[in-house]
Automatic annotation (TrEMBL):
Gene designation per UniProt: Cpne9
Protein name (record): CPNE9 protein
Keywords, ordered alphabetically: Calcium, Metal-binding, Repeat
UniProt family annotation: Belongs to the copine family.
Annotated GO biological process: cellular response to calcium ion
UniProt domain VWFA: residue ranges: 290-491
CDD domains membership: C2A_Copine, C2B_Copine, vWA_copine_like
Domain C2: start-end pairs: 1-114, 123-246
GO cellular component: plasma membrane
Length: 532
């Protein structure tokens, strides 16, 4: 996701344990984050202490960097500061809660309530977390200006005016942030409308000075200074209701000439603001991610009972298929409210009569192919391995079209589908699959392909479409919706699976927020406002 998406967590507790005999507890919350490498907990920060309450609402907030594609585990310890010592004794422990940052963001309106646990035999109350994305001010401004009666600077003909915008910095210096085009040979130019991020214009500080210089363009680059004026974002934004006219002043002329009035005027004709929305805005507005799994049951994987098979699960280790499914699924499930995942297999012969299927439900239930949680999917997958016969060919199109059918039913932005295909990459229906992907690119869905095994995955790279946009019969996919990764890049020699699976999930999911945004943008769908 966009690096530096900062999320602010606000913490409250309700019905805390009462430890103090004479007054109520004096709670403080300590946040620990789990280091993804070593999985040890490090203290990240703590709230202020609030004296004598069992229902604290803390003012001090935690600001965390948020990455959609990582599992960011948090631990909140609630302690009573009782004796106001900085060392926390066991007698002061009021309970704790474990939660992933994605769970808070994925819950309704970004609010999550968790029971506190950890004091044997006692009800410890609850902790309430509210996640809000910090506005690094994502607004974008569009404005248009014109000028009247500017000073004539050119010996032959009139001036060729253009404007230069500067934002002021904390230390009083100015940084150039925009130049308009040059309008030739006129003292009354009308410049084209232009857009600029509010950040660039004033760094999010609405009252900071914005300085604007007016120049006369000269071919040799020695542009003549006509004059200047100053304003601020707040002042500019008032132009939404009326024209604002600025006097263009030239300080040198002002000093020299008694009768000097100005060097012309600049009028702000229009000014409008739009927000750039982020992935978090949509999730908080209630957009649900629906996760579907499709697993390759073709004979090229090898007989599941043989250790050389990609489906082989030893008593000590999950198969590559199961590992990939778990790694990606465990992160996505935080954003799926019902935690029910339709799961299919393709390329097998089914009992009793051996008919070949390219989208059979792993749970063997045609009417409801959904499994409960990632664990449910794993269970059904292992069950299917025991009952079906691996066969072929390897067809992706049926299951892509199946998910596309579901995605096409709700296109208002409230539902977004992610299809995870795990395969050995030997594809038989490349043309139909490209056709399916081009059609699906107009729908609220993304496709993740994880390639397991030793094959050369050229066909999968082609479907990924990062280098060349996928096309079918002269039609190009309207957006890039496929992300491919080879599983073998993530199996490290040290055998530290936890780490390599976290990296796999990270690379696989990294493009999803952008892909979701590209769908919303092309359809002009705004996030629904989270109710306050």
């Amino acid at each position: 996701s966009v690096p530096g998406t900062k999320v602010e967590l606000t913490v409250s507790c309700r019905n805390l344990l009462d430890m103090d005999t004479f007054s109520k507890s004096d709670p403080v919350v300590v946040l620990f984050v789990q280091d993804s490498g070593s999985s040890e907990w490090k203290e990240f920060g703590r709230t202020e202490v609030i004296d004598n309450t069992l229902n604290p609402d803390f003012v001090r907030k935690f600001v965390l960097d948020y990455y959609f594609e990582e599992k960011q585990n948090l631990r909140f310890d609630v302690v009573s500061a009782g004796s106001h010592s900085t060392v926390l004794g066991a007698q002061d422990f009021l309970g704790q809660a474990f939660v992933a940052l994605g769970e808070v963001i994925g819950s309704q309106r970004g609010r999550l309530e968790r029971a506190l646990t950890g004091v044997p035999g006692k009800r410890c109350g609850t902790i309430l977390l509210l996640a809000e994305e910090l506005s690094n001010c994502r607004d974008i401004v569009t404005m248009q200006l014109c000028a009247n009666k500017l000073d004539k600077k050119d010996f032959f003909g009139k001036s060729d005016p253009f404007l230069v915008f500067y934002r002021s910095n904390e230390d009083g210096t100015f940084t150039i942030c925009h130049k308009t085009e040059v309008v030739k040979n006129t003292l009354n130019p009308v410049w084209q409308p232009f857009t600029i991020p509010v950040r660039a214009l004033c760094n999010g500080d609405y009252d900071r000075t914005v300085k604007i210089d007016v120049y006369d363009w000269d071919r040799d680059g020695s542009h003549d200074f006509i004059g200047e004026f100053a304003t601020s974002y707040r002042e500019l934004s008032r132009a939404q209701s009326q024209f604002t006219v600025y006097e263009v002043l030239n300080p040198r002329k002002k000093c020299k000439k008694k009768k000097y009035v100005n060097s012309g005027t600049v009028t702000l004709l229009s000014f409008s603001v739009e927000s750039e929305f982020t992935f978090v805005d949509y999730i908080r507005g209630g957009t649900q991610l629906n996760f579907t799994v499709a697993i390759d049951f073709t004979a090229s994987n090898g007989m599941p009972s043989q250790p050389t098979s990609l489906h082989y699960a030893s008593p000590y280790q999950l198969s590559a298929y199961a590992l990939a499914l778990k790694a990606v699924g465990e992160i996505i499930q935080d954003y799926d409210s019902d935690k029910l995942f339709p799961a299919y297999g393709f390329g097998a012969k089914l009992p009793p009569d051996g008919k070949i299927s390219h989208q059979f439900p792993l749970n063997n239930n045609e009417d409801n192919p959904s499994c409960a949680g990632i664990e449910g999917v794993l269970e059904s997958y292992l069950q299917s391995l025991r009952t079906v016969q691996l066969y072929g060919p390897t067809n992706f199109a049926p299951v892509i079209n199946q998910v596309a059918g579901a995605a096409a039913q709700v296109t208002d932005g409230s539902q977004y589908h992610v299809l995870l295909i795990i395969t050995d990459g030997v594809i038989s229906d490349m043309l139909q699959t490209k056709e399916a992907i081009v059609a699906a690119s107009a729908l609220p869905m993304s496709i993740i392909i994880v390639g397991v095994g030793p094959a050369e995955f050229e066909a999968m790279e082609e479907l990924d479409g990062d280098e060349v946009r996928v096309s079918s019969r002269g039609r190009y996919a309207e957006r890039d919706i496929v992300q491919f990764v080879p599983f073998r890049d993530y199996v490290d020699d040290s055998g530290n699976q936890v780490l390599s699976m976290a990296r796999l999930a990270k690379d696989v999911l990294a493009e999803i927020p952008e892909q979701l945004l590209s769908y919303m943008k092309t359809r002009d769908i705004k996030p629904r406002r989270a109710d306050p």
